Amino acid sequence: MAATGKSARPTILDHTAYWLTLVGVYFLTGVLFFYSGKTKLIDEHGHAPATIKKQFQGTFVSTFPGINVLWTIIGVLEFGIFALILLSLVRLEFLPRKAKSALLVALSLALFNFACLSFGETTTGQLSGTASLYSYFASTAIIFMLILLLPPRSARNWITTRL
User: Fold this and answer.
1) What pLDDT, in 10s, does the model give residues 126-151?
2) Do the domain assignments include residue 143?
3) What share of the chain is helix, strand, coil (3-state, %, to 5)?
4) Rounded Cα distance, 56 and 65, in Å
5) What band does 6 get if pLDDT is binned at 50, 70 and 90?
6) In a domain, 1, yes or no
7) How far apart, in whole angstroms, are the C-alpha atoms of residue 126 and residue 92?
8) Environment class of residue 71 by beta-carbon count within 10 Å: exposed (0-12), middle (13-18) or buried (19+)?
9) How many structural domains is the chain composed of?
10) What are the backbone dihedrals phi and psi of residue 93, each rounded to the nearest 5 degrees, phi first?
11) Among 152, 140, 46, which Cα is nearest to 99's?
12) In the chain, N or C terminus with fewer CB closer than 10 Å?
């Protein structure tokens, strides 16, 4: 029997797509924001690299609140995203029957983080950096919308009902 209706049982394709999607999202975002936050807060001790200091030299950011303060804030945001991803895992949100609230908040915070970074790049005329961050923002927005399409917000046969 073909899985075409909402009452149809999920197939191996549904399960495979679901689990590969979630593993990819958790792994990609978790690794990205862990290492970004770790670099800023632990490896660099909250001190922006010389290239960043040079980029923002003479801007309002260099006087208030200061480049190192903003660098630390961005690092805290990135670790916060990672912490929300861990919270999502601890809450077992990866299970099909569970709402993905913490994961969606993590992705929302990632959008905010990319917007802040993009603002910094734009104010210093780094348009290629802005374009790159816009791609990150757009990709994260797509991931956010993808999570909204997953069970439990949709039927467990979420792939085969659309084939």
Assistant:
1) 999 999 999 999 999 999 999 999 99
2) yes
3) 70, 0, 30
4) 12
5) low
6) no
7) 40
8) buried
9) 1
10) -65, -15
11) 152
12) N
